[in-house]
Amino acid sequence: MNIDIYINKYKNSMYNFFKWRYEINLLYKFSLAFFFACLTGLLAQFRFYLPGTPVPVTGQVFVVLLSGVLLGAWGGVSQIIYLGIGLAGFPWFAGFNSGIFYIAGPTGGYIIGFIFAAFFIGYILDRYIKSRKLFNMLALMLFSIFVLIYVPGLIQLYLWIGPSVNFVDLILMAVLPFIAADVTKALIVTGIAYGLTPKVGYGKKSDIKI
Asked: Is pTM, for the whole model, over 0.85?
């Protein structure tokens, strides 16, 4: 069988999945969002600390980016569920923590940023066909990490430490140690997303060509 036939079958299956995901009812969308919230909680437990920073390296960012790709704007809902259930007391924040005091700690701002990042990625990829090009997608992932996740994280860490910390020390603690790992995550998710996302429209109110 010609390889083009396999490629076309794959493209059709991806188109059908994204069209199905776009059109399913709220119950199914919520179920998918809950599943990704669970994945975020699971990957939060794969953590390790680097010297000189209270912020651990975890697998959460990978799931956050992927949730936006696969769920659209409902990726943001998955992170709201993750935050809400953790606040309610279920121990699935990093280190099996939970509650408002964890969110008020050094890493709480990053979790808030997860919501912004997943929603933004999902909204843009669903709405703009051009955003599904390889380098556009990579730029989208990097912006989501270094602006939408890092900025709330830096603000919360600053509030947690207090005004005694200067901007350079804050960057050394909360940005520089994580750049290599997060760029790697962005590259991996970009590759996955590029291979999965249809390059044609799949929704009535989406896929604006710009």
From this structure: yes
Taking the C-alpha atoms of residue 133 and residue 11, their distance in angstroms, rounded to an integer, is 15
| Cα-trace Rg, the chain | 18
DSSP H/E element including 86 = helix 74-87
Report how far residue 188's alpha carbon sits from residue 182's, in angstroms, rounded to the nearest whole number: 10
The domains of the chain, with CATH numbers, are 10-196 (1.10.1760.20)
Give SS3 for 193.
helix
57: which strand partners? 48
Residues 6+ apart with CB under 8 A from 92: 38, 40, 41, 42, 44, 45, 82, 85, 86, 98
Cβ atoms of 58 and 181 closer than 8 Å? no
CB 197 within 8 Å of CB 76: no
Residue 23 backbone class (left: φ over 0; alpha: ψ -120 to 50; beta: rest):
alpha
Please report, in tens digits, the pLDDT of each residue of the chain (210 residues total): 578 888 889 999 999 999 999 999 999 999 999 999 999 999 999 988 888 888 888 999 999 999 999 999 999 999 999 999 999 999 999 999 999 999 999 999 999 999 999 999 999 999 999 999 999 999 999 999 999 999 999 999 999 998 888 889 899 888 999 999 999 999 999 999 999 999 998 876 555 554
